[in-house]
Amino acid sequence: MADAALRLQNLFEQLLGAPLRVRIRAWDGSEAGPPGAPALVVRNRRALRRLLFKPGELGLARAWVAGDLDVDGDLYTALESMAGLLWERGEDARGTAEALRDPEVRAAVRGLVRLAGPPLPPAPPPEEVRRARGHLHTRRSDRRAISHHYDVGNDFYELVLGPSMVYSCAYWAAPPAGGGTLEDAQHDKLELVCRKLGLSPGQRLLDVGCGWGSMAIHAAREHGVNVVGVTLSQEQAAYARKRVADEGLTDRVEIRVQDYRDVADGPYDAISSIGMAEHVGAERYLEYATDLHRLLKPGGRLLNHQIARRPQRDESAYHVDEFIDAYVFPDGELAPVGTTVTQLERAGFEVRDVEAIREHYALTLRRWVANLEAEWTAALKLVSPGRARVWRLYMAASALAFERNRIGVNQVLAVKTPDSGASGMPLRARVWGEPDRA
C-alpha cells in the first residue's frame, strides 16, 4: 500500500506541533494534506536523509537545490504556507534539544529515520559554497564570496534582470499592473540616486560595487559626470567595460576590478553604493563608512542603498540565514537601518535623508522570478539545474520577506559636512521629486 505521504504528514505535524497547510506528494505516488493546496513533492527518500542529517533550513535547502524536493503549484503560496511552520517560529520556539525531550517528538524522529532508509548522509549539492579557513571579510575572502555570486555568467543575469542589468531594488512610480515596466522602474531608480546626489557636469562620481555598469553609464550619459566604478567580479567588469565602449563613454567612465578599500585617487564629489554594503559585514562596516568619508570632498554626498533586517531583542543572537549564506551571498550580513545610520554618523557623515522602499523590492523580485520562470529552459542551458533552483527559491522567498516586513531596504543620503556646517543641501530635502523619463 502506498502511504508514504500520509506517514510523512503525520510525522511532520508531530515534529512541528501544528497542522501542515501544504499537501505532501511522496515518491510512491501517494498524497496527503489539504485538498487544493500546493503540493510539497518529496521525490525520494534522500530528501528525508538530508533533513535528518541537517535538520532545519539547510537540510531543506540542500534537498531543494538537489531536486529531491519540489513544489507543484504556486511557489509563493507554498512558501507562505510553510513560512509560519518552518521559518517564522519565532524567538520563543522550542530549541531542538528541548523538543527532543518530548516522547512524541522522539517517536516521530524514529519514524522518520525508519522511513528515510539507510542512514548515510548525502553529499551537499555542488552549488553549495566550499568555505576556506580564515577570517571573514578580508580582501581575499570577499573576492571569493563575490565571485561565487556574481560570476555565475553574464548571460544568465541578462535573462533574469532584463535589459537594464541592474541587480538591486527598482523604483516603481506606479504598480506594474498600471503599465510600468521593470526597465522603466530601474531607470527611475538610477535617476533618483543621481538627483539625490545632486550630480552636475564635470563632477567625479565613485560607484562602489558597480555591477554591470548601469549606474556609471546612466550618470555619465544623463548628468555629464566622470565616473569610476569598482567591482570585485571579473565577469561584471568585462561586461561593464564593453557596455561603456558601446555607449561611447570611455572618456568619462572607468571600470576597475578593485576593492573599495584600495581606492586612493579621491577626492570625489559623490559616491553611490547600491546593494553593495550587505557584503561588508558588521566587523568592517565602520571601516567601510570611514573609507567612503575619506574619499569624498567636503560637502560631498553619499547615497547608500542597502537591505536592512529588523532589530532583535538580543542582537548577539543574530545569525546569517543558512540557505542564503550557503548558496547565495556567502558571508553576507544584514543590519538594522538604525545601526547603519549610527555607523555612518560615527564615520563623520551627517545623515540627511532615509527613504524606505521595501515594497519596491518585492515588486522587483517578482519580476525577476517571472523572467526566470518564463525562460527556464534557456536558463538550464546557461547554469546547472541546482543553480537555477537556488535563484528561483531565493528570489521568491525574498519577495515574500519584503512583503511581510521581515526585511526592508533603504536609501540613506549622507553628507561630508565641513566644519562650517554648510551642507550644500536644500532647506527642503525632498525637492528631487519623481524622476522624469525622456
TrEMBL record:
GO terms for molecular function: methyltransferase activity. Keywords: Lipid metabolism, Methyltransferase, S-adenosyl-L-methionine, Transferase. Signal peptide: none annotated. It comes from Streptomyces parvulus. Residues 156-382 form the Polyketide synthase-like methyltransferase domain. It comes from the Bacteria. This is Cyclopropane-fatty-acyl-phospholipid synthase family protein. SUPFAM superfamilies: S-adenosyl-L-methionine-dependent methyltransferases. InterPro entries: CFA/CMAS, CMAS, MeTfrase_dom, SAM-dependent_MTases_sf. Belongs to the CFA/CMAS family. One of its GO terms (biological process) is methylation. It is an enzyme of class 2 (transferase).
